[in-house]
């Protein structure tokens, strides 16, 4: 029941109307009986400063930040947690009595999703496809977790820049792989985990994939971060190769769970969040 005591949470982005975060977080708030409400605000780049200022003015307790503001928002926050500072992007803000603290939960969400199928990421050999915003957060989290990381990207210079940045900040080696089928095939043959962090395979181009079943093996764990559709072509190819799979919904839910835990200090009801998000996705 919304009342004068209801605490407000939000997502800010542009566009934001299709975000699944309101459905996911409101389901979690309901499940735990919290008098909290999560809404979506479309905030243009030119209004971002005012948007962030309104978090203080309206005493909004927590905010998710999405495309295209994850980097620009750093200019308007009071503090950053260590990981957000390292990668230079924020997707979660906590309002601590008017002080705005920025976090990044994308990479941690991906690691939590991976841990559903992989016991130990330390020393696991991982091929990450992509060097965009999501890939960046995942790559840093993997490197911090001790994975042996290879990065491949269509624009090779972006893979090189990301690898350079990780090597500088985490002092670990990262391999740079050109996005060519024969190169990928060789790396995958030796890999434990393959992650697609590109937008390839996303609706409406859902028949596209960068890797097919003949390039995979049955000991591989294949994770796609694309969640629309939930079962992407890449995951279907992985099933053909008898590899284990993790869908993009898992990361979405786990990064949301991380934000939820930062805001509330309580464990997130993962199953409820996943069910609500999946239903919203399936109903279009
Ligand atoms: N599951 C989750 O929680 C979650 C979270 C965040 C994002 N996502 C999804 O992840 C995907 C990427 O998001 P993002 O924010 O990282 O986007 P982004 O910053 O725009 O990066 C897009 C990435 O995809 C690559 N790419 C795009 N089209 C390609 C093609 N035809 N062939 C090869 N590579 C291609 C880009 O390569 P270039 O550098 O060469 O352009 C880049 O690496 C989206 O589908 C998004 O919905 C999921």
From TrEMBL:
| SUPFAM superfamilies named among the record's database cross-references | Aminoacid dehydrogenase-like, N-terminal domain, NAD(P)-binding Rossmann-fold domains
Record GO terms (molecular function):
NADP binding; shikimate 3-dehydrogenase (NADP+) activity
Alphabetical keyword list: Amino-acid biosynthesis, Aromatic amino acid biosynthesis, NADP, Oxidoreductase
Domain Shikimate dehydrogenase substrate binding N-terminal, by residue range, is 11-93
Q: Which InterPro entries match?
A: Aminoacid_DH-like_N_sf, NAD(P)-bd_dom_sf, SDH_C, Shikimate_DH, Shikimate_DH-bd_N, Shikimate_DH_fam, Shikm_DH/Glu-tRNA_Rdtase
Residues forming the catalytic site: 70 (proton acceptor)
Q: What is its EC number?
A: 1.1.1.25
A Pfam family cross-referenced in the UniProt record is Shikimate_DH
Query: Per its UniProt entry, what is the enzyme's top EC class, as one word?
Result: oxidoreductase
User: Residues that bind NADP(+), according to the entry?
Assistant: 82, 130-134, 153-158, 225, 248
Q: In which pathway does it act?
A: Metabolic intermediate biosynthesis; chorismate biosynthesis; chorismate from D-erythrose 4-phosphate and phosphoenolpyruvate: step 4/7
Record-annotated SDH C-terminal domain positions: 248-276
Q: Which residues form the Quinate/shikimate 5-dehydrogenase/glutamyl-tRNA reductase domain?
A: 115-213
Q: Which domain of life is it from?
A: Archaea
Catalytic reactions of this protein? shikimate + NADP(+) = 3-dehydroshikimate + NADPH + H(+)
Q: Which GO terms describe its biological process?
A: amino acid biosynthetic process; aromatic amino acid family biosynthetic process; chorismate biosynthetic process; shikimate metabolic process
In this chain, shikimate is annotated as bound at: 19-21, 66, 91, 106, 227, 255
What does the subunit section of this Swiss-Prot or TrEMBL entry state? Answer: Homodimer.
The entry's function note states:
Involved in the biosynthesis of the chorismate, which leads to the biosynthesis of aromatic amino acids. Catalyzes the reversible NADPH linked reduction of 3-dehydroshikimate (DHSA) to yield shikimate (SA).
Instruction: Return the similarity comment.
Output: Belongs to the shikimate dehydrogenase family.
Protein name as catalogued = Shikimate dehydrogenase (NADP(+))
**Can you name the source organism?**
candidate division MSBL1 archaeon SCGC-AAA261D19
């Amino acid at each position: 029941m919304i009342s004068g005591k209801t605490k407000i949470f939000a997502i800010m982005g542009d566009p934001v109307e299709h975000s699944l975060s309101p459905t996911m977080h409101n389901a979690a708030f309901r499940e735990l009986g919290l008098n909290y409400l999560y809404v979506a605000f479309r905030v243009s780049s030119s209004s971002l400063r005012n948007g962030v200022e309104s978090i203080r003015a309206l005493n909004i307790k927590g905010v998710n930040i999405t495309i295209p503001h994850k980097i620009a928002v750093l200019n308007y926050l009071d503090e950053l947690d260590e990981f957000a500072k390292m990668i230079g992007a924020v997707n979660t803000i906590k309002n601590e009595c008017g002080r705005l603290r920025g976090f990044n939960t994308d990479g941690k969400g991906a690691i939590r999703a991976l841990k559903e199928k992989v016991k130990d990421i330390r020393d696991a050999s991982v091929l990450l496809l992509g060097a965009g915003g999501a890939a960046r957060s995942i790559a840093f989290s993997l490197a911090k977790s001790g994975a042996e990381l290879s990065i491949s990207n269509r624009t090779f210079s972006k893979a090189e820049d990301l690898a350079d940045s990780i090597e500088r900040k985490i002092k670990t080696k990262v391999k740079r792989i050109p996005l060519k089928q024969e190169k990928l095939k060789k790396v995958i043959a030796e890999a434990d985990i393959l992650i697609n962090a590109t937008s390839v395979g996303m609706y409406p181009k859902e028949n596209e994939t960068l890797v097919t079943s003949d390039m995979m093996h049955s000991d591989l764990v294949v994770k796609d971060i694309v969640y629309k559709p939930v079962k992407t072509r890449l995951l279907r190819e992985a099933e053909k190769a008898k590899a284990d799979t993790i869908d993009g919904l898992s990361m979405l839910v786990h990064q949301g769970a991380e934000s939820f835990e930062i805001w509330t200090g309580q464990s997130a009801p993962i199953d409820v969040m996943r069910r609500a998000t999946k239903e919203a996705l399936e109903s279009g």
